[in-house]
Amino acid sequence: MCEVTVTLSDCEPSNCVTGIESPTTNLNTSEISDVVLDYKFAHLNVNGWTVKNNKLRQGILLSLDADIISINETHEKVEGLISLPGYIWFSSKRLKHHVKAVKVYGGIGMFVKECIARDFNIRILDKSYDGIMVTRFTHKLSRFTFVTVTSYLPPESSPWGRDSVSFFNHIVSEIYGLEECDLLLLSGDLNARIGNKNDFIVDID
Q: Is the pLDDT at 202 greater than 80, yes or no?
């Protein structure tokens, strides 16, 4: 879990009022100068969220007392099963399933405290690639914007984890397109790919 503190100084009210975002009302810069945003971000691979372990999963996450919680391997199949008191759930289910699969695997999501949702306009920018969800948060009283990239890359032994190159290329392309955001948070379980190349520069390191 990490904690991020941001001071907004000499900000201007946001003029972003489109889509699912809501407008700000009658605000001036003197009201929001030197505002301090102090949030906790957490990540957890739950390895399946079911009816049987629902209370256990909720208890673990609530004990973290994080403002935003990234979740991997939800195995989400039943709508409405995954929930957490005081939080809003954003999710991306696995796009493809094997015809012989007994249950749904994969799946990612993110819990956001309701108070954060009141302070920020939240928009999912992309979840077109299996295992990657990009979400933008724009502060309603300023132009401060941060983006979260929630990701899950299955192990190399999984049929869903064999194309790691395309997976990482998609994340990199998303990051390159986010140059105007103030803060970028990448979270997830990438089942680290070590490869067979040197992790140092010959004759230098």
A: no
Chain segment 143-198, per-residue pLDDT in tens: 789 999 999 988 877 766 678 889 999 999 999 998 889 999 999 988 876 666 77
Cβ contact 84:100 at 8 Å: no
Residue 65: closest CA among 127, 115, 137:
115
**DSSP E strands, the chain:** 2-8, 35-45, 68-72, 87-92, 108-113, 120-126, 132-139, 145-152, 183-189
Q: What is the pLDDT of residue 4?
A: 64
Q: Per residue in 91-129, is it b (16+ CB within 10 Å) or e — as a string?
A: bbbbeeeeeeeeeebbbbbbbbbeebeebbbbbeebbeb
Q: Which two tokens stand for residue 99?
A: 């015809």
Query: What is the biggest distance separating any 2 CA atoms in the chain, rounded to whole angstroms?
Result: 61
Strands 120-126 and 132-139: antiparallel
- Distance from first CA to last CA of the chain, Å, rounded? 31
How far is residue 183's CA from residue 190's CA, in Å, rounded to a whole number? 21
Tokens of 1: 């879990």
pLDDT surpasses 80 at 9 = no
